[in-house]
Prior knowledge:
The chain has three helices and two strands. Helix 1 crosses helix 2. By secondary structure, it is mainly alpha-helical. It has helices at 22-43, 48-82, 94-131; strands at residues 2-8, 11-17. Helix content is 70%, strand content 10%. This is Cell division protein ZapA. It comes from Paracoccus suum. Keywords: Cell cycle, Cell division. It holds the Pfam family ZapA.
Amino acid sequence: MATVEFQIGHKDYTLACQAGEERALRRAAQLLDAEAAQIVEQAGRMPEARLLLLAGLMLSDRMAGLEDRMAATERELTRLKTNPLQVEVPVIPQQIGEALAELAARAEAIALRAEDALADEGAGDEGESTAGAPA
């Protein structure tokens, strides 16, 4: 058996626990001590038994709230697994797809003619600049 020392409300405690449970016991003691510190801050000093009782009740209330939230989350998860959201993807009619393909082909043809026209203009400009230059 392992022994763990901790403090709650400025009072030292020592508890025995199974080997490997020390970390969990320290964490639980830290939570209880933090709750006790809040109670002392709000209500002032009080007998140890009352302080530990109130701190335990506060932690139990917090845990009950978390259990309620977890249960609600689990119900929502079950609902979503049972009835998954359905997303409808619109299907584009074949005629529209063909029309878009034809438009794309026309746009490419126009772009090629425009590039050829610009290339011809550029070649004509180069010929004029060399023709007008002194030899």
